[in-house]
Amino acid sequence: MRPRRRSRRPARPRRRLAAGLAAAVGLVGVLAWLLLGSPVLAVQEVRVDGVVTLSPEQVIDSAGIVEGIPLVRADTEGAAERVRRLPPVASVEVTRGWPDTVVVTVVERRPVAVVSDAGRRQLIDATGVVFDTITGPAPDGVVPLDVRDPGPDDDATTAALGALTALPGDVRAQVTAVSATGPDDVTLTLTDGRSVLWGSADRTDRKAEVLDALLDQIDTGTLDPADTLDVSTPDAVVLR
């Protein structure tokens, strides 16, 4: 009997597999080079959106993103944290804009009042954060705030700002100053010199609603004029 010959498997599938693996490795290498080493996907621009009082240059300097580094290596979280430290910044988002841009989107704090401290006039936002110093006139709609220790952790500050921001736009436009000796003693001064005794931060929305109605009734002659409007107990207002 003749010995049986063992059949050989064709070499072509093996060659195809090897070629496919080589191509895959090459593709991975090209992609890695594009992402990490090629100037094609490097940072060419840092774009800043949303700034009003800050300049784009201030934000770019704070972000610390270096042009020319691979975009994938840009530290967007670190950049956002650094920009967030700028006092006028309320929030910030830093994203990659492929193929070559880092986008820094800023939301600035909106001033609602101005406080005076040791000869300086500083803007304060609705949360009580003091964030900018001014030398000229305050922005439109920004009124003087008189409290002992302005800041987000001061109860008198938050009570006064809560009263101011709760007012309807047409009523708020009549306010020329707001003060608080404590969290239960907020007073608003109107353009014609009338005083509004607001009291505490309790029932703020109801007080705003009642004050709006009172001013309308006084303006139309339904109620007699009064120098002081006490809405500290909004269900039992006192005019005098």
Automatic annotation (TrEMBL):
PROSITE patterns linked to this entry: POTRA
Organism equals Modestobacter roseus
Q: Where in the cell is it found?
A: Cell membrane; Membrane
What InterPro entries does the record point to? Cell_div_FtsQ/DivIB_C, FtsQ, FtsQ_DivIB, POTRA, POTRA_FtsQ_type
Keyword Cell cycle in record: yes
Q: What is this protein called?
A: Cell division protein FtsQ
Q: Which GO terms describe its biological process?
A: cell septum assembly; FtsZ-dependent cytokinesis
Q: What does this protein do?
A: Essential cell division protein.
Q: Which residues form a coiled coil?
A: none
Q: Which UniProt keywords apply?
A: Cell cycle, Cell division, Cell membrane, Membrane, Transmembrane, Transmembrane helix
Listed GO CC annotations: cell division site; plasma membrane
Encoding gene (name): ftsQ
Family affiliation: Belongs to the FtsQ/DivIB family. FtsQ subfamily.
POTRA domain location is 41-109
**Membrane topology recorded in Swiss-Prot or TrEMBL:** Single-pass type II membrane protein
